[in-house]
Amino acid sequence: DITRTVLQLYKISKALRSKRAGALTLNQPKLQYQMKADTKIPLSFSIYQQKDSNRLVEEYMLLANMQVARKLCLTDRIFEKVILRRHPPPNASTIQNTLKLIKSSGIDIEGSSSGEISKAIQKIKDDSTQKLLIHLLAKSMQLAIYCCASCVPNNDYSHYALNVEYYTHFTSPIRRYPDILVHRLLGATLDYNENLYQTPRTLEQIAQLCNEKKLNAKTCSERSAELYLAVLIKEYGTISDEAVIVGVKDESLDVYLFRIGVPVRVGINNLPLDHPRTSFQKLSPNQSAELTIYWKNNDPPQIVKQVLKSFDIVNVDIMSEFDINMKKLKLTAQLRHPNAEKLATLAKLCSSTMLDNPISIQQRQDFDPYSEY
């Protein structure tokens, strides 16, 4: 009976989701680590896998946030103090440049609305390609912010990524102050308590402070995940993996390790190249470029030409080193020779590691769906 009920609820949630078609899902892969219980040194990692039960809970959390936001905004006597979560549309030139870059790889996406972008991503069946597009599009988006509704110019408080007019954070009052304010506002609409005593200007200042703290927490979470991964790779040594090129410069490449959702910059200055014959070419005004390098190969003596451009798959060596200037352990990567023998990937190596009395931790910034939005 419980299983049947859950399945029925999930079907209902899918039907409700279809009514708001156009929500733009830009979640990045989340890593979870296994560590030694005594030293807390990471031993292995895996990608957090969402199940239908997770999606069911998250869908209803989204719907709850939307309905509460709508209720508050349509109650005139408290509207001027309503705390919303708004997501401005991306900068027009930034998103157009990203879409032109994507189009240069043969994928045509119309970006006039979040709905069109969402539909285009959903049509792509290849998981790696989807992850890459999500990574590129997420970089083009602005951050979602808290605001006081009456302080927003032109009443522009819609949520671009979710494609809804009203949205707020309501479901986590035990750990987010904006949710507490929203609960108090909802109580005021139901005559359960008095309205907020702060003025709209003061509430806007509180919202701005919450934006600052949320960004700090997000940055801290990301840096923590980067550090654990850097320590893990330092324990194993140099590891090879596949990456996709997302940016080409005259002396470096920006690559994306799509298996784990980590971007890395790869320099070419330290490679065994025939440097006088290395050339960088800007192909068009839409940010598309290519870098041609010539590898020296001593056995047998010859020059191997390699043309590098966006969306090409390359093999990289992933390392961990201490940056003296930044005073931190960080990931670095080096391009492998196109004819070099492939090594065991990081994912395969970690999945085959025998763990000695491990404990599991989960590197997730937030349980709420679309937590960055």
UniProtKB/TrEMBL annotation:
Superkingdom, natural source: Eukaryota
Gene Ontology process terms (BP): miRNA catabolic process; mRNA catabolic process
InterPro entries given in the database record: Dis3l2-like_C, NA-bd_OB-fold, RNase_II/R, RNase_II/R_CS, RNR_Ribonuclease
A GO-annotated cellular component: P-body
Database matches in Pfam families: Dis3l2_C_term (PF17877), RNB (PF00773)
Molecular functions per Gene Ontology: 3'-5'-RNA exonuclease activity; RNA binding
Name of the protein in question: RNB domain-containing protein
UniProt organism field: Adineta ricciae
